[in-house]
């Protein structure tokens, strides 16, 4: 922060709290002194700030990695500011080149419409829908037309555009860059002009696009927005950012028992980053809990609290309690109350084929790997023989700690 502004301007407790909330878990707040001035003005005038988050509906589902920025929106919403959830139905037609080493194939209007229908419904599990302004950027992008697009493109130079890291790398490695990709950051920046945004949120990979909004607002005679970037949430593996392609994610519409168990599977170290970015507990409460663990409290107790909080947010408190009990039952070797029932034929059936056909393993070779690792049980007994032939009957088959099926084999 520009210390001269802070020291020369006494800040109220409300502004200091809002600044602390803004900075919690954030990667960067740019420019921080301008944000403080906006907060002071909002408190003085009673006029809430306009806080924007844009998401392109490139997939039908949101995972909890996406909720890092949604959580920040909710925190600022709870301070009384106006949050705008912007669905990029127009920009999805272009395709965001951020972090890409190749041209992103644009989605069809039909795919975008289908995905957009679920986005806001899922985001409303974090945001308060009664206090959220929902917009689609086709509202102002479509009317621009060809002449408006040319006028917009005139407000930024190719040289500046090529300073962008992914474009720079692709150009110098001889990889193609399509002209339409230059339009994406321009259109995202124009969203900020249309919405008169005071603050735009995004992941660290969106910094160039977010700063474009500041530039274009100045070009159009507006006060430029501030930019708040949030870190990308590390996934269940503790290595890579949460991603469906890495299979290290938790979907926010995932079944409660699975969600609870997946949170408990993260490392004790990663847990504290998740607390900062995903929990609604105060930083003081999290610090106190961390001190208790450092002093000898079992870290699993802290992880259970986090798992219950996250599960309750996307389901209910009752579902979170039930998921905890289900996890306890499974850890003791118990069978959950409700498990899938599968009917198979072909007895006697090889155990590998049975696991594959019951959707407990993606392939026979993976089934064999699970057997070798001691991760397969039939009626509570560990299976160690790959060549086991299962006779006709009904069995409870378990893979790992969380996969069960009641298999009726004929």
TrEMBL record:
Motif 'HIGH' region extends across 57-66
Nucleotide-binding: is it a keyword of this entry? Answer: yes
- Which positions are annotated as binding ATP? 244
Superkingdom of source? Bacteria
Cross-referenced CDD domains = S4 (cd00165), TyrRS_core (cd00805)
Which SMART domains does its entry note?
A: S4
Cite the Gene3D superfamilies for this sequence: HUPs (3.40.50.620), RNA-binding S4 domain (3.10.290.10), Tyrosyl-Transfer RNA Synthetase (1.10.240.10)
Question: What sections of the sequence does the record tag as coiled-coil?
Answer: none
Q: Give residue numbers for sequence motif 'KMSKS' region.
A: 241-245
> What EC number(s) has UniProt assigned to this enzyme?
6.1.1.1
* Compartments (UniProt record): Cytoplasm
Its keywords, alphabetically, are: Aminoacyl-tRNA synthetase, ATP-binding, Cytoplasm, Ligase, Nucleotide-binding, Protein biosynthesis, RNA-binding
Q: Which is a Gene Ontology cellular component entry for this protein?
A: cytosol
Family indicated by similarity? Belongs to the class-I aminoacyl-tRNA synthetase family. TyrS type 2 subfamily.
Assembly mode: Homodimer.
Q: What is this protein called?
A: Tyrosine--tRNA ligase
Organism equals Giesbergeria anulus
């Amino acid at each position: 922060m520009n210390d001269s502004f802070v020291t020369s301007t006494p800040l109220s407790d409300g502004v200091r709290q809002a600044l602390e909330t803004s900075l919690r878990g954030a990667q960067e707040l740019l420019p921080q002194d301008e944000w403080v001035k906006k907060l002071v003005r909002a408190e003085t005038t009673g006029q809430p700030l306009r806080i924007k988050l844009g998401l392109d509906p490139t997939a039908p589902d949101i995972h909890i990695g996406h909720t890092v920025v949604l959580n920040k929106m909710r925190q600022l919403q709870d301070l009384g500011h106006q949050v705008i959830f912007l669905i990029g139905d127009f920009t999805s037609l272009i395709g965001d080149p951020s972090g890409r080493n190749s041209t992103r194939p644009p989605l069809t209007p039909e795919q975008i419409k289908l995905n957009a229908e679920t986005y806001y419904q899922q985001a409303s599990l974090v945001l308060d829908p009664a206090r959220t302004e929902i917009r689609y950027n086709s509202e102002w992008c479509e009317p621009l037309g060809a002449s408006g697009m040319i006028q917009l493109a005139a407000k930024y130079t190719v040289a500046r555009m090529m300073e962008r890291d992914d474009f720079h790398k692709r150009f110098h490695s001889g990889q193609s860059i399509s002209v339409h990709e230059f339009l994406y950051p321009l259109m995202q920046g124009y969203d900020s002009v249309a919405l008169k945004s005071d603050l735009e949120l995004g992941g660290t990979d969106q910094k160039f696009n977010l700063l474009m909004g500041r530039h274009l607002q100045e070009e159009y005679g507006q006060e430029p927005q501030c930019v708040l970037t949030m870190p990308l949430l590390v996934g269940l593996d503790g290595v890579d950012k949460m991603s469906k392609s890495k299979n290290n994610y938790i979907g926010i519409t995932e079944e409660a028992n699975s969600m609870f168990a997946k949170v408990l599977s993260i490392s004790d170290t990663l847990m504290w980053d998740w607390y900062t970015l995903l929990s609604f507990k105060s930083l003081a409460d999290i610090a106190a809990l961390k001190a208790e663990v450092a002093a000898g409290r079992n870290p699993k107790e802290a992880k259970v609290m986090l798992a219950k909080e996250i599960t309750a947010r996307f389901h209910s408190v009752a579902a979170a309690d039930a998921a905890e009990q289900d996890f306890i039952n499974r850890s003791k070797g118990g069978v959950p109350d409700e498990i899938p029932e599968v009917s198979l034929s072909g007895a006697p059936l090889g155990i590998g084929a049975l696991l594959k056909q019951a959707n407990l393993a993606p392939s026979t070779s993976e089934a064999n790997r699970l057997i070798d690792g001691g991760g397969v049980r039939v009626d509570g007994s560990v299976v160690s023989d790959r060549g086991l032939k299962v006779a006709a009957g009904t069995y409870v088959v378990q893979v790992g700690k969380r996969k069960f099926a009641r298999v009726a084999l004929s």
